């Protein structure tokens, strides 16, 4: 059994004008696919063949970790965006008010984390010990290796925005935060209390 390149949960042009079809074609069809191809090549004929993306991410190191974590992070990222307007569930909305004061304050914290993360990585909204928190991970860093429950992520690798925005990461982050965040997905993760699972 090999790891599959999961399909995008929407059409390639569904996030336009905020994220172009060209960006998704390359980001999903080339970047995400390359992580899948490299991991499958690395685990072929080993004990890790047949393990899930989550299992490999939690146990591997080096290139196997990097590829597995990037496969999972990208799957989570595709779901973190939606072409449709979404709202947090009642329970998540209450937690946002309790832990950040308001949705605007949360979005400001997430924007600061995403814009200011140095070089490649990911900005995340997570639950850490029962409290909502904004964090970032570097390169392939993945929250599955810690105890937090991820709710949403923003990819801040340059390949996520260079075709559409060139070097302007703040413009990309603003476009995602103001138009695309999938609060239904965040609420599902929050209400379940465990992270989404990469499709087998
Ligand atoms: Mn990426």
TrEMBL record:
Metal-binding listed as a keyword: yes
Any Pfam family hit: Sod_Fe_N
Record keywords, A-Z: Iron, Metal-binding, Oxidoreductase
Domain Manganese/iron superoxide dismutase C-terminal per the UniProt entry, residue ranges: 88-188
EC numbers for this chain: 1.15.1.1
Superkingdom of origin: Bacteria
SUPFAM superfamilies referenced in this protein's UniProt entry, alphabetically: Fe,Mn superoxide dismutase (SOD), C-terminal domain, Fe,Mn superoxide dismutase (SOD), N-terminal domain
Gene3D superfamilies, per the entry: Fe,Mn superoxide dismutase (SOD) domain, Iron/manganese superoxide dismutase, C-terminal domain
Oxidoreductase keyword on record: yes
Catalysed conversion reaction: 2 superoxide + 2 H(+) = H2O2 + O2
Signal peptide residue numbers: none
Binding, Mn(2+): 27, 74, 155, 159
Record GO terms (molecular function): metal ion binding; superoxide dismutase activity
Domain (Manganese/iron superoxide dismutase N-terminal) ranges: 5-82
Similarity comment: Belongs to the iron/manganese superoxide dismutase family.
Function: Destroys radicals which are normally produced within the cells and which are toxic to biological systems.
Protein name in UniProt: Superoxide dismutase
Organism field: Novosphingobium barchaimii LL02
């Amino acid at each position: 059994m090999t790891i599959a390149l999961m399909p995008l949960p929407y059409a390639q042009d569904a996030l336009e004008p905020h994220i172009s079809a060209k960006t998704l074609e390359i980001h999903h069809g080339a970047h995400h696919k390359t992580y899948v191809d490299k991991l499958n090549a690395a685990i072929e004929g080993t004990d890790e063949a047949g393990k899930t993306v989550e299992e490999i991410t939690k146990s591997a190191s080096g290139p196997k970790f990097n590829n597995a974590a990037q496969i999972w992070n990208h799957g989570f990222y595709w779901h973190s965006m939606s072409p449709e307007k979404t709202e947090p569930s009642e329970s998540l909305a209450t937690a946002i008010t309790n832990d950040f004061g308001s949705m605007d304050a949360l979005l400001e914290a997430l924007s600061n984390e995403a814009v200011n993360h140095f070089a490649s990585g990911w900005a995340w909204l997570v639950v850490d010990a029962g409290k909502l928190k904004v964090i970032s991970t570097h390169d392939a860093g993945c929250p599955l290796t810690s105890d937090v429950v991820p709710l949403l992520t923003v990819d801040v690798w340059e390949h996520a925005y260079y075709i559409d925005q060139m070097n302007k990461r703040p413009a990309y982050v603003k476009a995602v935060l103001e138009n695309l965040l999938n609060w239904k997905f965040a609420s599902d993760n929050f209400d379940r209390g465990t992270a989404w699972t990469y499709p087998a």
